[in-house]
Amino acid sequence: MSGSPGVDEIDAALAVHGLALRGGFNFSGEDAAPPGMLDDPARCVLLVGNAGAAHWPHFHQWRSRQRQDIENPLDTWCREVIGAVGTRFGARAVSPSDKPYLPFQQWAIRAEGLKPSPVGILMHPQYGLWHAYRGALLFDVVLELAEASAPVHLCDDCPDKPCLKACPVRAHSAAGFDYQGCLAHVRSSAGGDCMTGGCLDRNACPHGADYRYPADMQAFHMRAFART
Q1: How do strand 176-177 and strand 172-173 relate by DSSP bridges?
Q2: pLDDT tens string 187-217
Q3: pLDDT, tens digit (0-9, with 9 covering 90-100), for 98-133
Q4: Which whole-number Å values give the CA distances from 18 to 11, 14, 100, 196, in the listed order?
Q5: Per DSSP, which regions of the chain are E strands?
Q6: Residue 159: is its pLDDT beyond 70?
Q7: Model pTM greater than 0.90?
Q8: ∠134-137-142 over CA atoms, to 5°?
Q9: What is the dihedral of CA 92, 47, 30, 141, to 10 degrees?
Q10: Residue 12: in which H helix or E strand, if any?
Q11: CA 158, CA 174: separation in Å to the nearest integer?
Q12: Tell me: the pLDDT tens digits for 7-62?
């Protein structure tokens, strides 16, 4: 992502924690923009997230200093880090778990020009399915940003769709995601491989292998899913 020196500075501040800017755009007059730092609608949004597991060691270091029963530790860490960066650069920090929910998926599609994969995660031409959006920064001013490109959607050139064939309960299909079926399987004795190694469908995707989350990170997310 390119833009003004200020955007580069924000990206550098996030990189210290293994996070990165994941694109952004200026709201138009037709957008239902949420408030920025003031009560007026924000003028610009910058998405923040991870590509691969660059943030994982930083999160672990922070986690070692917290009480063990802290609820939603990764969300808490992301709020702390992104919030501090927002305060430094005059932006309101928001999270995907904030209520009322903000349209993070739609923002990400617009910011990076991506499309959903068959398993629902946005397919990135470099990172594959191994990335996430952890928050956003809302600014009261317009920023100079590059237009989102139109990357090749790797799923379009993948006729075999292995991501729809690995799950033993066929949780992902053309009909969508069988949330309850997946949850029941993960919680059962038969779901051990999913709990320790992550979603089998996601891992079956051949793209972005260099950014694949390590097993302990995947297990962390699966334990969180199983608690829902």
Answers
A1: antiparallel
A2: 999 999 999 999 999 999 999 999 999 999 9
A3: 999 999 999 999 999 999 999 999 999 999 999 999
A4: 10, 7, 28, 24
A5: 20-26, 44-51, 92-94, 115-116, 122-123, 131-139, 172-173, 176-177
A6: yes
A7: yes
A8: 145
A9: 50
A10: helix 5-15
A11: 15
A12: 999 999 999 999 999 999 999 989 999 999 998 999 999 999 999 999 999 999 99
Q: Is 49:132 a contact under the CB 8 Å cutoff?
A: yes
**Interior angle at CA 161, CA 218 and CA 179, nearest 5:** 50
Looking at the DSSP assignment, which residues form a beta bridge with residue 67?
none
Question: What whole-number distance in Å separates Cα of residue 103 and Cα of residue 38?
Answer: 20
- At 28, give phi and psi (nearest 5°): -95, 175
Two tokens, residue 116: 């959903």
Give the model's confidence band at 3: pLDDT under 50 very low, under 70 low, under 90 confident, else very high. Answer: very low
| Type of residue at 202 | R
